[in-house]
Specification:
This protein is about 35% helix and about 20% strand. By secondary structure, the chain is α+β, with helices and mostly antiparallel strands. The strands form four sheets. The chain has a five-stranded antiparallel beta sheet with strand order 2-1-11-10-9, with helices on both faces. Strands 3-6 form a two-stranded antiparallel ribbon. Strands 4-5 form a two-stranded antiparallel ribbon. Helix 3 runs antiparallel to helix 4, helix 3 crosses helix 6 and helix 7 packs across helix 8. The longest helix is centred in the N-terminal third of the chain and has 15 residues. The radius of gyration is 18 Å and the shape is globular.
Length: about 280
């Protein structure tokens, strides 16, 4: 079991009640039955074009694997860990004023210097339209170096041993992980921060600029968003990474997690895995 070593370990947090509860949650998660993709002897029976891929049932039980221990740039799948750190370290109602540094990242997601948004609204933008500006705004507001350190510490706490982050958005090719590590993160999000996946499964959501009260509609960039069986997930694309996709679906009453890394058509590949295994 992937988490055997964690079961007898303790996570050290500062003494706030929120963080003490999170420490208990993490230890509970560690002690749960979670296979994390370490089953052996599974031979792929699907014609995979992705660099790495995996499909997992309840508790991380592996149903299909292809290069699941291969490290790969994960691009904006990074933002799932960013959202975890935001949820655990920041206050949802804090207000962030957009600065030039926050808006310097690649990609224009429509934010303007001087605008003010709640942390919760920036998190929505980061998850729904994969805004790099929103990810950097959250990290810079907290303290970027400390924020990225918290992302890496969380990965260590979860025993995501082949994962490393250098930025909060996933723009760097040095933000890397594996299929096996990402299914651990997916299980943690589903178990302890379900609001993150609940946000990513929506067709759209609305945020409000605090100075003017102007409302802005965000339309989800994920092609699976809004589908009845889609429970959430995250896209990620960079030139180095290719197309990445982490998805959770309700299939036959059970949550199934499908991860595709380094593909040219992540949605087709994901659907191919689902159809081959469960339909």
């Amino acid at each position: 079991m992937l988490f055997t070593a964690l079961a007898s370990s303790y996570v050290v947090f500062s003494a706030s009640s929120k963080e003490i509860n999170l420490a208990k949650d993490l230890n509970n998660f560690a002690e749960a039955s979670f296979d994390g993709g370490n089953n052996i002897g599974i031979t792929p029976q699907i014609d995979i074009t992705a660099t790495a891929a995996g499909a997992f049932g309840y508790g991380g039980k592996q149903a299909f694997s292809w290069e699941t221990t291969k490290r790969w740039p994960i691009a904006s799948i990074t933002k799932l860990m960013t959202a975890v750190v935001v949820s655990e370290k920041m206050q949802a109602n804090d207000v962030v004023e957009m600065t030039s540094d926050m808006l310097a990242a690649d990609g224009d997601s429509g934010f303007v210097k001087g605008q003010k948004y709640k942390v919760s609204d920036l998190e929505k933008a980061m998850l729904v339209i994969s805004s790099n500006d929103a990810a950097y705004a959250l990290a810079i507001h907290y303290g970027q170096a400390d924020f990225v350190a918290a992302m890496n510490q969380k990965a260590r706490d979860l025993r995501m041993t082949n994962t490393h982050y250098v930025d909060p958005a996933g723009l760097s090719a040095q933000n890397q992980s594996t299929v096996n590590d990402l299914v651990i993160l997916s299980g943690y999000v589903r178990g302890y921060h379900p609001d993150i996946f609940n946000e990513t499964k929506k067709n759209s959501d609305t945020i409000v600029e605090k100075r003017t009260g102007k409302r802005r509609i965000l339309v989800n960039i994920n092609e699976f968003a809004g589908k009845k069986d889609f429970l959430g997930g995250k896209t990620g694309t960079t030139p180095e990474a290719g197309e990445n996709l982490l998805s959770v679906f309700n299939i036959a009453g059970e949550a199934k997690t499908i991860i595709v890394l380094g593909d040219k058509n992540r949605y087709t590949e994901t659907q191919k895995i689902i159809s081959s295994l469960w339909q």
